[in-house]
Design a protein that fits this description.
Helix content is 9%, strand content 35%. The chain is mainly beta. It has a single domain, classed as Sandwich (Jelly Rolls).
Length: 276
C-alpha cells in the first residue's frame, strides 16, 4: 500500500501548494442537479476536456463490445507499458478518459455531498513490483474540488495488487488513513475482493465540506472504504472516469457504463439510492 501511495505524493503535493486558490465554494442555490451519461454519445462530454485517444500509450472509444445497458459503453485500453513504475520527478501513467468539468456547465461547480455511481468492468493484471518501484495500480474514479487544470486536491478510488478497492489522498493529499477499509485482515474469506471481468457497481459519496468532509465507497452495495476528507470548500469541480493506470502496466481494458453524479441532501439519501 505504501508503494502505491508514493506515486502521487511529491508531484501532486507541489501542485496542491501552487494552486489552492483554485478551490472555490459553490455559489448557486437552485434545486439539486444531476449529471448522467450512458455513453451512448460522445456529445455528453463535448464541452469538457477529453484525453486524445492514443496519447499516453492508451486508447478509448464508445464501444458496443461490452455494455451494461443501452447500445454503447465507454471502452479504454492500454496499448503497451510506458515505463517502469517509479517516483521520480516525471511520472507517466496511462490516461484515456473524458472529464466532467462542472464549471463549464450552466449549473456551475456542484455542491457536495454528491453520490457518484458508475458501472465498471475491469480486465487488468496488477502486480507487486520489486523494491524501489511502485506497485501497479488502477484508478476507477478521480474527483477534485480544484477548478483549474492542476487538479491539485483530489480523492481517488483505486485498486492495486491486493485486489481491494481503496480511497486515495485521504484525509489529506498524499495520505492514506481510513475510518474503515476492507482488507485481508477483516475479510478472511476474500469475498470483498473486487471481481474482474464482470459488471460491478461502484457508488462513491464525496463531501468536500471544509470542516467535516468525508468519502465512502460501496462495491455492489457493500461499504469497502471510508475516510475523512480535508482541503475542500464544499464543491465538486471536476471528475474523470475511464482508464488511469500506473506506467508499467502493459495491457488491460476497462469498460464504464451508466454514470451518474448526483447532488444529494445527506448520506441518508445516498443510502436510499443504493437500494434501487
Amino acid at each position: 500500500m505504501a508503494n502505491i501511495l508514493r506515486i502521487f505524493l511529491l508531484p501532486i503535493l507541489l501542485s496542491f501548494l501552487a494552486s489552492c486558490s483554485n478551490i472555490f465554494e459553490p455559489t448557486y442555490t437552485e434545486a439539486l442537479w444531476t449529471f448522467s451519461s450512458s455513453f451512448e454519445s460522445s456529445s455528453d462530454f463535448e464541452n469538457f476536456y477529453i484525453v486524445p485517444s492514443g496519447d499516453y500509450d492508451s486508447k478509448h472509444e464508445n464501444s458496443t463490445e461490452m455494455v451494461y445497458s443501452g447500445t454503447y459503453a465507454h471502452k479504454a485500453w492500454i496499448v503497451k507499458a510506458r515505463a517502469d513504475n517509479n517516483d521520480g520527478a516525471v511520472y507517466m501513467p496511462h490516461r484515456a478518459y473524458p472529464t466532467v468539468q462542472f464549471d463549464k456547465t450552466p449549473e456551475g461547480i456542484y455542491r457536495t455531498p454528491c453520490l457518484v455511481t458508475v458501472w465498471v468492468n475491469l480486465d487488468m493484471t496488477l502486480i507487486r513490483r520489486a523494491s524501489g518501484h511502485i506497485d501497479d495500480w488502477f484508478s476507477f474514479v478521480t474527483l477534485t474540488c480544484d477548478a483549474s487544470d492542476n487538479w491539485s486536491r483530489t480523492v481517488l478510488v483505486n485498486i492495486g495488487p491486493t485486489g481491494y478497492i481503496v480511497l486515495m489522498h485521504v484525509p489529506n493529499q498524499g495520505e492514506q488513513e481510513y475510518i474503515y477499509q476492507v482488507s485481508s485482515a477483516n475479510d478472511p474469506s476474500s469475498v470483498h475482493i473486487f471481481p474482474q471481468k464482470t459488471w460491478v457497481r461502484l457508488d462513491v459519496l464525496i463531501d468536500f465540506n471544509a470542516s467535516h468532509g468525508y468519502a465512502k465507497v460501496w462495491q455492489n452495495g457493500i461499504l469497502v472504504s471510508h475516510a475523512n476528507v480535508k482541503g475542500g470548500k464544499g464543491g465538486l469541480a471536476q471528475a474523470h472516469f475511464g482508464l488511469y493506470a500506473s506506467a508499467a502496466v502493459s495491457s488491460g481494458t476497462i469498460f464504464n457504463d451508466d454514470l451518474r453524479i448526483k447532488e444529494i441532501e445527506n448520506e441518508n439519501e445516498a443510502l436510499s439510492l443504493l437500494r434501487y
